[in-house]
Write a structure and sequence with these properties.
Layout lengths: L5 E4 L3 H10 L6 E5 L13 H6 L9 E2 L5 E2 L30 E2 L2 E2 L7 H14 L27 H12 L5 E2 L6 H7 L17 H10 L4 E5 L3 E7 L2 E7 L2 E3 L3 E4 L3 H10 L24 E8 L12 E3 L15 E4 L5 H8 L3 H8 L2 E8 L8 E5 L2 E5 L5 H17 L4 E6 L35 E3 L14 H18 L2
Parallel strand pairs: 1-2, 1-12, 2-8, 12-20
Antiparallel strand pairs: 3-4, 5-6, 7-14, 9-10, 10-11, 13-16, 13-19, 14-15, 15-16, 17-18
Helix pairs in contact: 1-6, 1-11, 3-11, 8-9
C-alpha cells in the first residue's frame, strides 16, 4: 500500500496552499518538510538576535560558479520562507501575463492570461485574510474587493502618503496578510523579516497549513529530507528520504525554486542522464531574483512608526523608463531600527540610531528577466547558483526616480543600498510552465511534461518574475492545481 494518495515535498507557500486546496477532497495527503516547526522564543522579536547574530539563519551554504561558499538566507522550517516574509499579497498586474519590452530585453509572457488566474487570486486572498484597498492603485487589475479593509497607516506614513500625493504620485495601501492586533500583542515590532511564531502573520503555516491539518486525511511529517526521486520510464515510483522510501500515486515538488531544481537534477539516472523532468534541458535554468534596493529617506522629522510597511507606489510599474519601459514597484520596508541598521551596514550604533530615528525606509523592486544561463546546477552534493542579474539599468532608473521624488517631497537626504545574492529577493524560475515541452518543464497546470505523476507547485513554475512579491501568485497557482488534482488523482 502507498504511503499517501499525494505526497507534497515542502510546506512553504505552494505546498501548504496546495494541501489546503486538497484537504476537503478526502484524498490522503502527506506533506514532507525537511525543517521543523518554529517555536516561540525571546529571539523571535529581538532585532539584535535576528539581524546581527543570525539566530534563525540556517547553516546551509551554496557555491558561486567560482567555488566561493555563501549563505543564501533561505529558511528550512514548517512554512518555509513565508515565516519570515513581509506578508505582502499582491496580484501580478494584468500586463505581466503578456510579453513586455523592458530596457534590457523582452519577457516571454505566460501560457494563459490574467483572467485565468483571477478567481484563484480571490480564493487565495480569502484563505490568507488579506487586508487591502484596490481603489487607489492605478495598476490594480480587474478584481473584486479585498476580504478586509487595509491595515491603517501610522501617523508618519499617513503624512508620507500626503506628501507623495502632492509630488504627483498615487500612493496606495499595501495588501497584507497580517492580523495587526495579534502581531503587536506579542511585541511592538515590525513583521517584515521577523519570524511568525504566534500567528500574527497569515503565512503558509499559520493560514494554509492550519486549514489543511484541520482535516484528518492530511498529515505533516517534519524533519524529513527528500534526497532522490526514483522513476521508471515516465512515471515516478518512489521518494528516497531520510525516513526511508515513500510512495504515492502522485508526487508534488514544492521545495522552492532552488531546491526543487536541485532535487530533479540530483535524481539523474541512466534513463534520465540530465535529471528528471529535464528533456528540455530547462530544469535549473531561467533563475530569477528580483533586483532590489533598500532606500532610506532622511529628514529632520522623527519617525516613530512601529511597523511602517503599509504603503506602495506603482506609478513607475508599467512605464517611466526610456521609451516608456517599465521600472518596477516601490513599497515600504518594515521599520528599520538602529539595531537592524547597524547589523546590516556595520555602522556604529550611535550613528545608526541617529539615521534610523529620522528615516522612512523603502524597498525598490524591479523585474529580473529570464535567462537560460542564469541557473542552478550541482557540483557533487553542493548547489551552485549562477545568478546572472538582468535589467539592472531599469532598477537604477527606478531608484533614481524614487530618490528625486522623495527629495521633492521633503527628504533632503536619500540613501540606497542594493541587495546581493545573500538576500533572497523572491527567487523563482528554474522549472517554468509552458505549452511547449521543448522550452518548458511543466504544462500550464504545473504537471511535468516528462512524468505522468509528478507536478511542481512553488516559485519554480513562474515564467517571469514581474516586479511584485510572488506569494499570492504562488498560492493562486496552488489552488488552481489543487482543483485539477482532486479530479486527476483517485
Amino acid at each position: 500500500m502507498s504511503d499517501a494518495d499525494i505526497i507534497i515535498v515542502g510546506s512553504g507557500m505552494g505546498g501548504a496552499t496546495l494541501a489546503a486546496g486538497l484537504a476537503a477532497s478526502g484524498q490522503r495527503v502527506l506533506i514532507l518538510e525537511r525543517g521543523q516547526l518554529l517555536a516561540d522564543c525571546p529571539e523571535a522579536r529581538d532585532p539584535v538576535a535576528i539581524f546581527r547574530d543570525g539566530h534563525f539563519r540556517p547553516d546551509e551554504t551554496w557555491l558561486t560558479p567560482e567555488g566561493s561558499r555563501f549563505n543564501p538566507g533561505n529558511y528550512a522550517c514548517v512554512g518555509g520562507n513565508s515565516k519570515f516574509y513581509g506578508a505582502v499579497m499582491l496580484r501580478y498586474r494584468e500586463a505581466d501575463f503578456a510579453p513586455i519590452t523592458h530596457m534590457e530585453g523582452t519577457t516571454p509572457g505566460w501560457p494563459f492570461p490574467y483572467e485565468t488566474l483571477a478567481p484563484f487570486y480571490a480564493r487565495a486572498e480569502a484563505l490568507f485574510n488579506v487586508r487591502g484597498d484596490a481603489s487607489a492603485d492605478p495598476t490594480e487589475p480587474p478584481r473584486g474587493a479585498y476580504p478586509h479593509p487595509p491595515i491603517p497607516h501610522e501617523a508618519e506614513i499617513a503624512d508620507l502618503a500626503d506628501r507623495l500625493s502632492a509630488a504627483g504620485l498615487h500612493p496606495a495601501p499595501l495588501p497584507l496578510a497580517v492580523d495587526l492586533d495579534r502581531w503587536l500583542q506579542r511585541a511592538q515590532t515590525p513583521w517584515d523579516a521577523f519570524p511568525d511564531t504566534t500567528g500574527g502573520k497569515l503565512d503558509a503555516e499559520s493560514a494554509a497549513l492550519a486549514e489543511a491539518l484541520a482535516h484528518p486525511n492530511v498529515t505533516l511529517r517534519s524533519g524529513v529530507e527528500v534526497r532522490r526521486i526514483e522513476a521508471e520510464g515516465g512515471h515516478v515510483t518512489g521518494l528516497l528520504t531520510s525516513a526511508g522510501r515513500l510512495t504515492a500515486p502522485h508526487v508534488v515538488l514544492a521545495a522552492g525554486a532552488v531546491h526543487t531544481a536541485a532535487l530533479l537534477l540530483r535524481s539523474a539516472s541512466e534513463a534520465h542522464p540530465r535529471g528528471l523532468a529535464n528533456r528540455s534541458d530547462q530544469v535549473g535554468r531561467n533563475f530569477m531574483n528580483h533586483n532590489a534596493s533598500a532606500v532610506l529617506a532622511l529628514s529632520t522629522r522623527r519617525n516613530r512608526a512601529v511597523y511602517q510597511k503599509t504603503l506602495q507606489i506603482n506609478d513607475w510599474y508599467l512605464s517611466g523608463g526610456p521609451e516608456g519601459a517599465p521600472l518596477g514597484n516601490v513599497q515600504l520596508l518594515g521599520r528599520v531600527s538602529a539595531p537592524i541598521l547597524a547589523a546590516q551596514t556595520g555602522l556604529p550604533v550611535p550613528l545608526a540610531k541617529l539615521i534610523a530615528g529620522r528615516a522612512i525606509d523603502f524597498y525598490a523592486m524591479s523585474e529580473d528577466l529570464p535567462n537560460p544561463d542564469s541557473r542552478v546546477t550541482l557540483r557533487g552534493e553542493d548547489i551552485v547558483l549562477d545568478w546572472k542579474r538582468s535589467n539592472w539599468a531599469a532598477h537604477e532608473a527606478l531608484v533614481a526616480k524614487l530618490k528625486a521624488t522623495l527629495k521633492r517631497a521633503g527628504f533632503p537626504v536619500v540613501l540606497s543600498k542594493a541587495f546581493d545574492r545573500r538576500t533572497p529577493s523572491h527567487q523563482c524560475g528554474t522549472a517554468r510552465i509552458g505549452t511547449d515541452p521543448a522550452t518548458s518543464v511543466c504544462d500550464p497546470l504545473g504537471r511535468a511534461h516528462d512524468l505522468d505523476n509528478l507536478s511542481i507547485c512553488d516559485a519554480s513554475l513562474l515564467p517571469t518574475s514581474a516586479a511584485v512579491n510572488p506569494s499570492l501568485t504562488i498560492a493562486a497557482l496552488a489552488l488552481r492545481q489543487a482543483d485539477h488534482l482532486k479530479e486527476a488523482v483517485q
